[in-house]
Amino acid sequence: MKAKKLWKRLKKEKTVQLYVLLGMVFLFVFKYIPMFGIIIAFKDYQLKTGIAGFFTSPWNHFKHFKEFFGFYRFAEILKNTLVISLWKLLFSLVMPLFLALVINEISNKALKRFAQTATYLPHFISWIIIAAISFTFFSQDNGVINHILIKLHMTKAALPFLSDPDYFYGMAVFTGTWKESGWWAIIYLSAMAGIDPGLYESADLDGATRLQKIKFITLPSILPSIVVVSILSIGSLLGGGLVGSNFEQCYLMGNNSNNGASEIIQTYAFKVGMLNARYDFATAIDLLQSLTSVILIFGSNAVSKKVTKQGLF
Amino acid sequence: MGKSNGKAMRSKDSYIFEVIITVLTCLIIILMLYPFYYILVNSFNEGRDTMLGSIFWWPRKFTLENYQYFFKEDVWIKSLLVSVIRTVLGTLLCVIFTCMVAYGLSKEDLTFRKGYYAVIILAMYFSGGLIPNYILLRSLNLLNSFLVYIVPTALDLFFILIAVSNFQSIPKELPESARLDGASENRIFWGIILPVSKPLLATMTLFTGVGQWNSWVDSAYYVSNDSLRTLSYRMIEVLNQASLPVSTYASGISSSNVTYLSVQMAAMIISTLPIMCVYPFLQKYFVSGIMLGAVKG
Description:
The complex is a heterodimer. Chain A is mainly α. Chain A has helices at 2-12, 14-37, 53-56, 63-70, 74-105, 109-120, 127-138, 144-151, 165-193, 197-205, 210-221, 223-235, 246-253, 259-262, 265-275, 279-308.
């Protein structure tokens, strides 16, 4: 009886049920099957066994994890990942806020709009182009930056920005922040647009300066957005915070000469997996990074709930 | 007296503040746009001459050669074509499929709705990662096929959520009256729901389109057939050449004045242009888009 009723209902909904079911089949194939694939991090897997191999390959008692922890470059790769991520985190929290505060204070409407449009342009440009631009800009022969530095007598000979590992952290943080700050400023700007203008008017009557208004009205009003953005960026810390593109950046801007600074967990996993065909080992490294990220986002959310009484979930 | 004095000081204060803000803004704008301008100027300069450097504001030896070379060369023009086709087809497929699934889920009384949602949310927060994904695509015989560009990206989970809330905000009377006139669900979806959701479609098109246009990992590692390479991939090839000694890298191609670097600059401008043309017009949809990006992180 009940089954009959259900059948009748489904029949009535047949078109929309079909729409949704197509989506579910897609998800099963393209999202859920790969999830089962994570299991090969704990197994000896061979590519020729295909998807069935996820289940049939033999367990190997955490061999891949032990190997990675014992790898002679483990400390270096971990350090690169953490240092680049932490610097990016810091800058991705400060710069968008600074940018939003500046743009919000512009009184000329056209200039304000133009500034906003200009600052988030790079967000839409692929990392390949950004990397190519930075190659021409930071080039040791005829690069714009070296040209300026020499003109200003800040350096005698052109600096090897692109090949010396000592410069890589700075390059990564600078180009990443440059690319994404304007985009993240949008969140703050939209929060600022929602502030009650009456607050500013009464502050005017009390004779507040513009800096005072920023300090006592603007910043406190957008605090909730700042908290949300901070949690999100700590959660994605290892991926590069809000700038988010640690992998693409280190992969595209890294080369043999600066590898000591540009190899991070993600690029290493990628190379081991895709270039050396060690699929199981690469999956194990990837899994370690994902687990760390999950811990970070729950951790930062919990701390934020305690301290500011606000959280994402 | 004292009061008016204070007021004058405040307005002077405010004037200085205004100047500082304006100067700061102009510096920021230059910092953001100059790199693109620099590439533009150099892409219109003779390749060999560019290697002498110091072209900052205007081409020294103006030429269209670099662009002519780009559009003459099979390798470049083919990859441009692949990029365009994958962007158009991939975006179309993703927007339509995502909207279809979202339309079904937008019905509050849909049977199994909660179950479907659980499947989606779980897939949103957990992913198999690079390698299992690669193994899957290989098992499905998608490697080395054009389909690998458009099929795995055919459904966008975050846009499903956005689209559901969008469809639910459409007044119920609209589809209801059509239903009374005997229109089928298919007709209601294509003929009523989609046409009234233009802002949603615009946002989805922009974000998936840009994603398709910019993606390169699939072209670099899921495809080895040379005729399937995208423009982005060709750019990486040139990037790799950039680490060669400058004498090799900057040497002319055949006997012309064109160098690898100068064609690359033309290619950079060509691949940036479509994005520059589209994104300023979609500003008003960004805020929903950025919240999306925030969750997606």
